[in-house]
Amino acid sequence: MPYLPQWDGVGPFPDLAEPPKGIQMLWHPTIVKPYLTLLSECSNPDTLEGAAGALQNLAAGSWKWSVYIRAAVRKEKGLPILVELLRIDNDRVVCAVATALRNMALDIRNKELIGKYAMRDLVHRLPGGSNNNNTSSGGGGSTNSSILAGKTMSDDTITAICCALHEVITKNMENTKALRDAGGIEKLIGIARSKGDKFKRTVVTVRVCWNLIEWKGDIKPSGEAVVKLKVTCVLVSRLSPQAEE
């Protein structure tokens, strides 16, 4: 498989002088626009899930075409379309969109934009918390609707959101601050401490929690919250062998 040559991620795509032919059309950056059109104009949940899932798969990994796809979604103004779909009342669509955003965040510029404009929507769909600390910052939505949104999400969707949060805050100080300001730390602690038969979401959350603890300065929660995070991470991380089942 061909991997990415030297490219700044902004200029014209290399190796695209010739129009795509045959099977190349499946992963060529020009396929992004039709998928985004479906996502922005269609109301059928199955179609939305399928289109988001297609972008999710195309944007995965380090193959050069995946790198091009991630950049093409940004250039075609596709990130706001995906963020908007986080608010839809359909669990499978939210799951596919959250995973797509996680893969889009592998692109550094996408990561910055997702952290800035999608953080509150991602945190909003997690269970737990009253979001009382969000209202003053324009978090959007009432407290009751925020709680309801979290409760309706399946374990698979919560896992997808935690994976997206993990990727978005990794090695990005501003996004980590945004997660804290959106009330995400409290929700992550609740998920990590919760009991259930699916531990994979908890292990993913632990990784996010450890990421937070590693940051210095005013990004960390203070006092009791730090103790809870450390204890939670140590205890839950011991469950990781079961989580792989």
UniProtKB/TrEMBL annotation:
The keyword Repeat applies. It comes from the Eukaryota. Pfam families: Arm (PF00514). It comes from Ilyodon furcidens. Belongs to the beta-catenin family. InterPro entries: ARM-like, ARM-type_fold, Armadillo, Plakophilin/d_Catenin. ARM repeats lie at residues 77-114. This is Catenin delta-2. The gene is CTNND2_4. Coiled coil: none annotated. It is found in: Cell junction. Keywords: Cell adhesion, Cell junction, Repeat.
